[in-house]
Write a structure and sequence with these properties.
Layout (H helix, E strand, L loop, with lengths): L14 H10 L4 H10 L6 H8 L7 H11 L3 H4 L6
Helix pairs in contact: 2-4
């Protein structure tokens, strides 16, 4: 796995959570991109990489599709307590 050379950016708050959940579920970026398409979100590999690195802003509809594709709640994706 290729590691980032630069620290995370500050354009979104979900990037690190997306990486953590995606890798915990054993999904490669390419597989995750295909899964996102099934939920109506078609983004490029570069765009996903920038999102995960927190170098890209995320639209509200993207947050919903990403949460669905990862099979987690939007609240969990946003790092909110689920208790």
């Amino acid at each position: 796995m290729k590691h980032r050379k630069e620290p995370p950016g500050d354009k979104n708050i979900i990037g690190t959570k997306v990486v953590a959940v995606r890798t915990a579920k054993g999904l490669k970026q390419k597989e995750f991109l295909a899964k996102l398409q099934t939920f109506g979100l078609d983004i490029s590999p570069t765009s996903l990489s920038r999102l995960e690195g927190q170098y890209r802003l995320v639209q509200d509809y993207e947050v919903v599709a990403i949460a669905k594709a990862l099979d987690i709640s939007v609240s969990e994706l946003l790092g909110e307590d689920t208790e």
